[in-house]
Design a protein that fits this description.
This protein is mostly beta strands and 102 residues long. It has strands at 3-4, 17-22, 29-30, 33-34, 45-51, 55-57, 60-62, 71-74, 80-84, 87-93, 97-101. The protein starts with a strand and ends with a strand.
Length: 102
C-alpha cells in the first residue's frame, strides 16, 4: 500500500516511484528586471507527498529510503510532470532522487 497524504490522495505511485511537489523558488529581481516564468530554471528540489511500496529484488520487496514529508533533490530533467486537480506533481523513480535534505 502506498503511503500518501491529503494532497496526493488521488495519486498512488507503484513500485519504487515517488510523487514530489516541486518547491517554488522565491521570485528574484536582477538589476531591477522582472524574470518571466519561461526564463526561470526548473526547481530541482521538492517535498515527497506519496511513495510506492518499493521494488522487488530476488523475490522480496525492498522498501524505499525516502518517506512522505522528506525534502529531496532530484535531477533537472528527471521524472514525469503531471497535473491533478490543478496541482502540479512530479513522478519519478527513487533512483532519480539524488539526496534527502535534512
Amino acid at each position: 500500500m502506498a503511503t500518501k497524504n491529503a494532497a496526493a490522495t488521488k495519486i498512488a505511485p507503484l513500485a519504487d516511484r515517488v510523487v514530489v511537489k516541486a518547491m517554488e523558488e522565491a521570485e528574484t529581481m536582477r538589476g531591477g528586471l522582472y524574470i518571466p516564468d519561461t526564463a526561470k530554471e526548473k526547481p530541482q528540489q521538492g517535498e515527497v507527498v506519496a511513495t510506492g511500496p518499493g521494488r522487488f529484488e530476488d523475490g522480496k520487496r525492498v522498501p524505499l529510503d525516502c518517506k512522505v514529508g522528506d525534502k529531496v533533490l532530484y535531477g533537472k530533467y528527471s521524472g514525469t510532470e503531471v497535473t491533478v486537480d490543478g496541482e502540479q506533481y512530479l513522478i519519478l523513480r527513487e533512483s532519480d532522487i539524488l539526496a534527502v535534505i535534512n
